Amino acid sequence: MTSLFAIVDGNNFYASCERVFNPELEGRPVVVLSNNDGAVIARSNEAKALGIKMGVPAFEIKDLVRRHDIKVLSSNYELYGDMSRRVVETLSRFTPNLEIYSIDESFLDLGDFYNVDLNEYARTIKETVKRWTGIPVAVGVAPSKTLAKVANRISKKSAKANGVLVLTDERHIEEALKRTEVADVWGIGPRYTRKLAAFGITTAWHLRNVTDAFARKHLTVVGLRTVRELRGMSCIDLEMVPAAKQNICTSRSFGKTLTELGDIRGALATHTVRCASKLRSQKSCAGVLTVFLQTSRFNDPGQCYFNSRTIKLDCPTSSELELLRYATGALQSIYREGYRYKKAGIILQDIVPDNQVQLNLLCSPNIDRDMKLMRALDSLRDRFGHKSVRYGVQGIKEEWALKQENVSPCFTTRLEDIIRVRS
DNA sequence: TCTGGGGTCCTAGGACCC
DNA sequence: TCTGGGGTCCTAGGACCC
């Protein structure tokens, strides 16, 4: 074996971020809710112990909250994003060969670290992150990413491992796989779990031992890769440079249902501006735009409406002015009076690098002007926040604003919040 | 009353072309 | 008029991730 990966993942990440700045939350059950305070998306260990499941609607746990004095927080992505950056910064001191996999997980390529004491090294990573950022993490080390995920998972459940597990020894790998349900393997979702159960495959160890032909047939080439990774053969490389996104989507449920086109247009315009910012930050232009609008999925069938409109742009662009024009036009064409709308959004596709845009006769004559304006807007928003410059169409009163009843201050990124907290 | 948001990749099938 | 196969491109749908 030559390859070696570590995965470092923040324990109950959002709840832990909140705890770093609010010691009162220590030792208490804490849950963090999704946008609009809809559903539970993060739980402290104490909250998990009370049986609160991932994704349950907030209203379903009201009794539990009262009885156990659970601290319920709205999500604060500005805070979590900044804490995530600090964790990555810390990890990058250990190796530059690092992949930021998600807001709370990074893979490290430990390449030829076979001659160091891996247990001690992994423990040093864990303790350093805790000391420098306040975030508790778990570290799993193994010859493939998929096995590292298995190690990481067990490290959190086993008191003996206490957040650090190295799986390089064949006997240990076998034992770990036998203890891991197939549903908990990275890459095996609910559908495959059911399918595999029909063949009597219920543990990661069973899955490791299927034939290549079986894996290929029932789980496609993706599943075959997973099986090989479970055997210790590394098939999924570290991606140090994040690939440019091929789709960029911004959508939100409204804080309350909306009926008026003007209010919905305000929300969609704001999503469009955000989406265009994301597009420009990866130096791309989009050639296709989709706008969608929908009522609640939980409405009676007669009151359900979903529609979308996809438009091929005359010329790929990242100009908010142009995208706003297309988006509001598309919205107009799918809006129907008489429904109570819950959500709207925009998806940008056919994304190309901004220096490879094919110009043609239909392109806007204002490209240079728009790009200068976008640069100015980007730098203003960078300094003063994304709400500092707005278009008229976004509206002043945000009828659609998120419901956030208990959001914590942005302790690390907003001066006004920091001042407020300290006084 | 209240039920998240943002992504990726693979496959199968049809259209179309030579 | 009939015969055949192979290739590419696109799209929809299905699976997964956090």
Automatic annotation (TrEMBL):
<dbReference type="GO" id="GO:0003684">
    <property type="term" value="F:damaged DNA binding"/>
</dbReference>
<dbReference type="GO" id="GO:0042276">
    <property type="term" value="P:error-prone translesion synthesis"/>
</dbReference>
<dbReference type="InterPro" id="IPR017961">
    <property type="entry name" value="DNA_pol_Y-fam_little_finger"/>
</dbReference>
<dbReference type="GO" id="GO:0009432">
    <property type="term" value="P:SOS response"/>
</dbReference>
<dbReference type="InterPro" id="IPR050116">
    <property type="entry name" value="DNA_polymerase-Y"/>
</dbReference>
<dbReference type="Pfam" id="PF11799">
    <property type="entry name" value="IMS_C"/>
</dbReference>
<keyword id="KW-0742">SOS response</keyword>
<keyword id="KW-0227">DNA damage</keyword>
<keyword id="KW-0234">DNA repair</keyword>
<dbReference type="GO" id="GO:0003887">
    <property type="term" value="F:DNA-directed DNA polymerase activity"/>
</dbReference>
<dbReference type="Pfam" id="PF13438">
    <property type="entry name" value="DUF4113"/>
</dbReference>
<dbReference type="InterPro" id="IPR043502">
    <property type="entry name" value="DNA/RNA_pol_sf"/>
</dbReference>
<dbReference type="InterPro" id="IPR001126">
    <property type="entry name" value="UmuC"/>
</dbReference>
<protein>
    <submittedName>
        <fullName>DNA polymerase V</fullName>
    </submittedName>
</protein>
<dbReference type="GO" id="GO:0006281">
    <property type="term" value="P:DNA repair"/>
</dbReference>
<dbReference type="GO" id="GO:0005829">
    <property type="term" value="C:cytosol"/>
</dbReference>
<keyword id="KW-0741">SOS mutagenesis</keyword>
<dbReference type="InterPro" id="IPR043128">
    <property type="entry name" value="Rev_trsase/Diguanyl_cyclase"/>
</dbReference>
<dbReference type="InterPro" id="IPR025188">
    <property type="entry name" value="DUF4113"/>
</dbReference>
<feature type="domain" description="UmuC">
    <location>
        <begin position="5"/>
        <end position="189"/>
    </location>
</feature>
<dbReference type="Pfam" id="PF00817">
    <property type="entry name" value="IMS"/>
</dbReference>
<comment type="similarity">
    <text>Belongs to the DNA polymerase type-Y family.</text>
</comment>
